[in-house]
């Protein structure tokens, strides 16, 4: 034991580095396999109107039923896919499948995540349009979520893509807002219609005082720019009260529902429509 401790750092580092490399390579092979053998599936998590508690949309989230390791989350494998061209094929698969499964869901939006790697691809806008045509999914019901990190430093490269998508009627949402370094000044110059405030701020509401200040500030600035604010990871009624007080419009999180298979999401939407009928505004009736 004493002997190995005397070795240089690089020597002890090497086996671990090799292990990582091997793990990555085998994951890459398994991922390519997963696409061909239909091991991927989608779950849908509702987004709720804070005032009325009505479901306004669903976000599609990717799951991988690995033959040996059970159900894997994106955090377990997306980092590998993003290092290869596989991510673009996966993002296409997700968009196509989500559009097919959510088409008959009703008049709600469908949010789909797209990797920055995919957004930098030259043909991405054409591919999105082709998928919408093939599936018959209405563009105005689709919302593409991009992370803050996607737009930083890449702004020029993807500006054209974003403009094309937006001009086709697709909406764009800025995901995990607050975790990167984008400011609301960036946002003002992008065709973004929604900001999703990251879960880390929401879970600190009522816990750390600065979280409340940050969320309140983002909501206020978002409202003044005409951008919808969605809070992600809402787990408690207390957090929801904060959001309502600040004027955030939408919320998503375990308080309302975990991500669900499409059948369960459909059932949830029906129940939600019965429990919270649309508001009939008396001043509209007089027209
Ligand atoms: P995201 O887009 O911010 O998605 C929200 C994540 O928070 C989801 O994790 C969801 O299951 C989780 N979540 C929702 N409500 C709560 C809550 O109340 N509490 C807590 N603790 N967590 C909550 P998930 O499904 O593991 O996805 C993680 C990330 O992976 C996503 O973050 C998204 O960035 C990425 N991702 C997921 N699906 C896809 C996909 O199809 N394509 C791409 N490119 N990325 C994806
Ligand atoms: Mg998202
Ligand atoms: Mg998010
Ligand atoms: Mg997030």
Automatic annotation (TrEMBL):
Domain EAL intervals: 24-273
Record-given protein name: EAL domain-containing protein
Organism encoding this protein: Azorhizobium oxalatiphilum
